[in-house]
Amino acid sequence: MTTNAQASEHRAHLEELCAEGGPLTAHSRHATTQNPEWFNVRRQQPRQERRALHNEILAAFVASKPEVLRNRKAIVLAGPPGVGKSTAQSALIAQTRTRPDQWLSINPDDFKDDLLMQALADGSYESYMVPDEVRELESKGEEFYPRELAALVHNESSILAKKAIRDAIGRGDNIVIDGTLSGEKNARAQMDVLQAAGYDVKVADVETTQALSEARTLGRWERGYLAAENGTAVGRDAELGGRWVPLSFPASLFAAADDRESICAAKSFLSESDRCSSPL
């Protein structure tokens, strides 16, 4: 049985591998968008075969949500990881007197899972994505799970999420956009597109401190990792493991370590009547 101490040692290795310039980062040569067979790397555009895969993933995603309403309503979730955005989402949906299955919830993490499952199925996970540094640790008996390499599909999952949002807006779907709103330019552009399409938009900015965000993000990964290691995980969690997020990410969302809210709050720029703030 894998212990908490072993999980801590594994976490230290992951943090090192995910440090800037490391092999488990979004711009690593092992990242899927850096594979010239799949992408025009300079333009970051998928080639024909990869685009076909994207279309398959998106078609399956939409088909799995047949009850989605088309009332041109949007909930945009902002805030750092580990703050309970899913709870805020449920509360906001309940206020609309609709059901969760009547909304298309778009989260890049879900597309990360799809891409990782595809990589496992077609062999590219082992042949392309796993870096030598991970192989060396694995040769010493340390287990790595696909979600711990999720940074390597980060950019591609963002491409999928953006297309899913564009397509959903084109259909008029009720949508939930799960993100951080940490980048003002992209956040404002997203709001402009929604409002131009006639959407009624509600922003839920869910806040907490950096320390709590880091602790909850780490705790979520550790529970998933130990469950996969000790045979209690089920479904995709058993194969993909815990959802890894390096602590540098929540830290990057706070101007100072002792701030009471993240920089995401300042980017949730709609009026108070269009905004829901839920400090935890």
UniProtKB/TrEMBL annotation:
Specify whether Transmembrane is a keyword of the entry.
Answer: no
Give the top-level enzyme category. transferase
Q: Superkingdom of the source?
A: Bacteria
Pfam families xref list: Zeta_toxin (PF06414)
Q: Which SUPFAM superfamilies match?
A: P-loop containing nucleoside triphosphate hydrolases (SSF52540)
A molecular function annotated in GO for this UniProt entry is: kinase activity
Question: Which keywords does UniProt give here?
Answer: ATP-binding, Nucleotide-binding
Zeta toxin domain boundaries: 131-251
Record EC number: 2.7.1.176
Question: Reaction catalysed?
Answer: UDP-N-acetyl-alpha-D-glucosamine + ATP = UDP-N-acetyl-alpha-D-glucosamine 3'-phosphate + ADP + H(+)
* Family from the record: Belongs to the zeta toxin family.
**What is the name listed in the Swiss-Prot or TrEMBL entry for this protein?**
UDP-N-acetylglucosamine kinase
